[in-house]
Amino acid sequence: MADEKFYHELAFYGDYVHPGEAIKIERKIDFNEYRADLTPYVAQSVDDLTRERKASEAKERMIYDKLTALSKAWAEQASQTLILDKTLDYLSISTVPNTANQWTMDKRGRHEISNLVYKMSYTIEPEIAYRPGRPRAWEATWEVSFNVIERVEKRGGRPVIAGKKKKYEDKAAAEAYINGRIAAYAHLFTELSPPIPEDKVRYFRANGHLLRGYTVAPHKPTPDELLTFVDDHEISGVNLAVKPRRKAPTQKKAGKSR
Hints:
By secondary structure, the chain is of the alpha+beta class. It has 2 domains: 7-91, no CATH class; 104-210, no CATH class. The protein is 31% helix and 20% strand. The strands form 4 sheets. The chain has a 5-stranded antiparallel β-sheet, covered by helices on one side. A hairpin with a 3-residue loop joins strand 6 (111-114) and strand 7. The longest helix is centred in the first third of the chain and has 46 residues, at 46-91. It is elongated and about 105 Å long.
């Protein structure tokens, strides 16, 4: 037998559950006058119908409250699914590619050294824009950056520490300049996983957790923080009074000899 209900139950865009993310259950009913029969109701008084209507609304709200409570229960359970998803995602992150503090060179002549935290690269190339009649210049380009995982780089760009491009008429001068830059940053490439500067930890976190294999450099107190370690009595005990200067002895004016 066909459904003879006097209303249509409508679900908008379908119901769904995305575990650990979202649920959607949306309903609306629409009156169907061709199947409705008001006979049991029209014989009643308005007062009786009003009371019955209020009672029905109260029951409807009780059902709504139960659904709301169930939605909170879903949120509790979904949060457990979410934390498990984020942990599995964290554990799936591979070690960032690095050269283990060894210099390498690719087919294009780009030199690179890297570890789990830092990366340095340089090129020395003849300039592209060349005009006959003058010596061909050499372009020395270098850069030092943090060696971050791909998702961090996509989210906020590659965090560059320093870098520059300079031109030299002599290739040997360009090489000498690059060698000086290599020496200046050599201290960054003595460990496979050097401690991360405290203010750069955000580049080495995933899902709110420090990546495996990393450590953070000890905190260095700021001048303001250092002042908090000084007790009030230590400050008050400091004699800030300025001692007056001694006056130079006055010289007697030379008088006329008698």
